[in-house]
Amino acid sequence: MPNPQLVTASDAAAYTGRSVGTIWRWASEGRISRYGTGKQVRYDLREMQGKATDEWTGEVMLAEPPPLPEGARAA
Predict the structure, then answer these.
(1) Is residue 72 part of a domain?
(2) 61: helix, strand or coil
(3) Is 34 within a domain?
(4) Which residues span the domain enclosing 52?
(5) Which of 25, 40, 41, 65 has the smallest set of CB atoms within 10 Å of its CB?
(6) Most trustworthy range by pLDDT among 26-30, 65-69, 71-75
(7) What angle, rounded to 10 degrees, do the helices at 9-16 and 20-29 form?
(8) Which of 61, 60, 65, 58 is nearest to 21 (CA)?
(9) pLDDT at 10 (0 to 100)
(10) pTM, entire model
């Protein structure tokens, strides 16, 4: 996947409407890739869906989780 759009876990959480812990869990389950190590870890936004806002009610709808890899189990 060329040209990843790398962001911190906090930025990925804001983009998806999920918590930072969820971003970490998705990475540990193999749903999304980690780039870097330690405090320099980044995540590719192109592997995630962004949250949406219902145009009628203004309600924020969370992004769907990325799929689990073949043979993996959710935490």
Answers:
(1) no
(2) strand
(3) yes
(4) 6-61
(5) 40
(6) 26-30
(7) 100
(8) 65
(9) 96
(10) 0.84
Find tokens 């799929």 and name the residue.
67
Number of domains in the chain: 1
Amino acid at 16: T
Burial 15-31 (b: 16+ CB within 10 A, else e): bbbbeeebbbbbbebeb
Phi and psi at residue 45, in whole multiples of 5°?
-60, -25
- Residue 42 to residues 9, 24, 49, Cα–Cα distance (Å): 7, 10, 16
CA pair distance 4, 55, nearest whole angstrom:
30
Residues in the chain: 75
71: left (phi over 0), alpha (psi -120 to 50) or beta: left
1 is a domain residue: no
